[in-house]
Design goal:
single chain; about 325 residues; alpha+beta; Arc Repressor Mutant, subunit A; SH3 type barrels; 5-stranded antiparallel beta sheet; globular
Length: about 325
Amino acid sequence: METLLRQWAMLRLIPRHPRRIDSGKLQSELEKLGYEITLRTIQRDLNKLSAVLPLVCDQSKPQGWWWEADTNLLEIPGLDPQAALVFKMAEQHLSNILPNSTLAALAPWFKAANGVLQNQIEGTGTWLDKVRIIPRGQPLLPPVVDPGVQTTVIQAVFEGKRLAIAYTPYGVPAPKEYEVNPIALVQRDHLLYIVCTLWEYRNPMLIVMHRIKSAVILEKPAFWPEGFDLDAYIHQGGLGYRIGPPIEIEAVISTSVASILMETPLAEDQQLDDLPDAFYRLRATVADTKELRHWLRGFGSAVHVLFPIGFLDL
């Protein structure tokens, strides 16, 4: 039983192509899980298991191992029908949001979910004809992301290492070289952002994955800026292209806009007061972002901002 549990733990540590893991790293990770094992035993186990499982190795030193990219999930217990339905709904929702390289990494889970649902003679499987997820706003196709770049960036984030990248900022004709200290990854709609700092600067900024042309992991540790809080950064408008600190906004809005904000408030301190002629006075403290201004402009004459004066003119 001990051997079975150890081998099962080892198999779960092996990544899918194009990532790889070597025997030394496997030994280190297994030791963290409480398994004392020699490199010789690991190599012997891998050779035996690769004879019956889609495991692949290279001839480098140390030798690297990986699962074939299209390998079926090896999970015990398997997906139940309800979990399979959730994966199927996620596939519908994410297919127009995530880059193809990310979707490819999720393909084994989607495939497993489809297999479970196809085997449902009645009941849960019929939900596939009854459930749809429609994204809000104008649907856009996700940008093309280099799968090798994405794999490298994600590995650097999770291993806490810096990156050397070639990156094309918006409006710049050719890529530029940067040393990036990656802090976190944030997926928003169809864009994947890297929250990071550059070189030895300490001010967090955003770059988007699809504009990275090449990426190489450096043997330099990444750092977390002192006092930085990812949730606070997002809440304060970091991903909405923040213009300044939070502001108090006052506006006169139509009933149609007020009905939206009654169900989904703009802020925790939002106030809506009745005005004559089917209008409302809105007061709220909000992050000052380009996205907020764009959203308010979208309502046209149904929103008139009183304060700050000229807010929508910027």
